[in-house]
Amino acid sequence: MLCSPAAATIRRVKPGITLKLFLAILAACALAAIAMAVATRLSFQSGFLGYLDQVDGQRLDTLTARLADEYRKRGSWEFIRDDYRQLRDLAVPDQPVQRLSLFDASRRTVVGNPELSEDAAVRSVVVDDRIVGWVARAPYRRLSGAADLSFQQEQLRAAWIIAALAVVLAAVVAMILARAFLQPVKRLAEATHRLAAGAYDTRVEVRSGDEIGRLGADFNHLAHALERNEQLRRRFIADVSHELRTPLAIARGEIEAIEDGVRPLTRESIASLKNEVQSLGKLVEDLYQLALADVGALAYRKEPVDVAEVAREAVDAFGERLKEHRLEVDADLQPAKVFGDGDRLSQAFRNLLENSLRYTDPGGSLRIGVRRDAGRVAVEFEDSAPGVAAEAMPHLFERFFRVESSRNRAHGGAGLGLAIVRSIVEAHGGEIKAGASPLGGLAVTIAFPEFT
Asked: How far apart are CA 14 and CA 308, in angstroms?
């Protein structure tokens, strides 16, 4: 049998969570209402029969008193033996005789059913402080009177009507609750679709402090992180493109000038090209190091290392360049061991020295310190003017960030050195922060866990 695409689509549509929650709440309330109605019916039947038995007990007391009067007059039970009409006349009007039994003092049957059930109501007939007989009434097993049956039907009908009204009320409440509970979830679902489509500025309004409210807050944090990462990605691509384009453009211009004969092929022109190629190679190597750090593939061979010795070797390697720049170095390097990779630590210290060398005014000073401090190894690099603005401090370790004042691109930095330093420090379980130097420039403080 063939069906239209529209019909197939309708069959494929599954009920939404709102309908499912509505049906779940409604089913629970309906079951509770039905259970209440059934329990009411059972309780009413049991209670009503108990009520009738209680009334019969009072009537039985009246019958006992009348039988005692008759026995006192007659002196025996012969007047009523096997005479149900006589017993009916003595009983309370409209009571069924077949449920009554009379026994003498020896429990022999005078009139009525000789078999008594365990739950039968029994009263003694006392004459002059002497028990002369026993009267018993079997309990109600079911309703038989027209009035009783009519009353029972009315009560049961009322119970089912109340149950039906409870189900209708439950349906209304379930609809309201389903919409109230799921409205924030729908907003989150719609916001998630927009976020998945690339709208990273999407936010949801948090109106409660429950689990859904916390989920909304977490969604906003996630959206903010994705938006920031997207901005960083775009800025990173733009910065990489710019940094790669600049040395390539210079090298291409040099080569074209040599080809056109504008500039002769001399040692100076070759040296200029070599410098640009070296700058390009350094940038590519830095990017490669950061890429390895991002994916956790940057190799570390850790062992107990004396940080002071690593810092001293790095300073010695920069000795000639520091002298050319007329920077006075004050090194206070106290022995302190950490568990780390000496080559990577040397790379971090060299990047810090390179940063100070590039951005510190000639004739300035550089102070380097290594000391042990309460289970930590503190490493400090402090240089002289120029300084860094306070608002730029939190961004110094971001990639391609450069201060646009005295510490600018004219000094040749691509803005990756400090980012690499932070990656190496964090890989060693350390912390790094930047602040103002007492010497007037930048102070970089690193804290490593001490190896013991």
From this structure: 68
**What are phi and psi for residue 355, nearest 5 degrees?**
-65, -45
List beta partners, residue 217: none
Averaged confidence pLDDT in the chain:
79
Taking a C-beta distance cutoff of 8 angstroms, is the pair 345, 305 a contact? yes
Structure tokens at 41: 């019916």
Name the least confident of 30-44, 100-114, 253-267, 356-370: 30-44
Supply the Cα-derived Rg of the chain in whole angstroms.
50
Asked whether residue 337 carries a pLDDT value surpassing 90, the answer given is yes
CB of 121 within 8 A of CB of 57?
yes
Give 164-203 as a DSSP string: HHHHHHHHHHHHHHHHHHHHHHHHHHHHHHHHHTT-TT--
SS3 state of residue 130: strand
| Dihedral over alpha carbons 257, 262, 266, 272 (to 10 degrees) | -40
> Does residue 76 sit in helix, strand or coil?
coil
Count Cβ neighbours within 10 Å for each residue of 42-55 and write b for 16 or more, e otherwise. eebeeebbeeebee
Q: Sheet containing 130-137: which strands, arranged edge to edge?
A: 109-112, 100-104, 130-137, 121-127
The pTM of this model reads: 0.49
Show Cβ contacts of residue 15 under 8 Å, excluding neighbours closer than 6 positions: 23
Residues 6+ apart with CB under 8 A from 119: 139
What's the CA gap between 392 and 436, in Å, rounded? Answer: 11
* pLDDT at 18 exceeding the cut of 80: no
For 400, list phi and psi in degrees, rounded to 5.
65, 10
Range of weakest confidence among 28-42, 46-60, 369-383, 416-430: 46-60
Q: Is the peptide bond before 93 cis (omega within 30 degrees of 0)?
A: no
Q: How far apart are alpha carbons 398 and 423 in whole angstroms? A: 10
Q: What tens digit of pLDDT does each residue of 161-174 get?
A: 877 787 788 778 77
Amino acid 299 reads: A
